[in-house]
């Protein structure tokens, strides 16, 4: 009888060990996925910052062109 109990206990322990090993593998996969997502987020944030910088530059160039056009229009009005 005690041998049967020991076998049952051994089976339960093996099941627990297998479950722990499986969960550890899943945890490792999730950690890797998390790191990949963090890397993607950092890359996207860097791209957003670059696009914002470019948008600001284009805005400044647009304003400069508007000022030049106003200046030219003002000179044309002075000529008339």
From TrEMBL:
It is found in: Cytoplasm. Residues 6-75 form a coiled coil. Its main location: cytoplasm. Keywords: Cell cycle, Cell division, Coiled coil, Cytoplasm, Septation. One of its GO terms (biological process) is FtsZ-dependent cytokinesis. It comes from the Bacteria. InterPro entries: Cell_div_ZapB (IPR009252). GO terms for cellular component: cytoplasm. Homodimer. The ends of the coiled-coil dimer bind to each other, forming polymers. Interacts with FtsZ. Belongs to the ZapB family. Non-essential, abundant cell division factor that is required for proper Z-ring formation. It is recruited early to the divisome by direct interaction with FtsZ, stimulating Z-ring assembly and thereby promoting cell division earlier in the cell cycle. Its recruitment to the Z-ring requires functional FtsA or ZipA. This is Cell division protein ZapB. It comes from Vibrio eleionomae. The lineage of its organism: Bacteria, Pseudomonadati, Pseudomonadota, Gammaproteobacteria, Vibrionales. The gene is zapB.
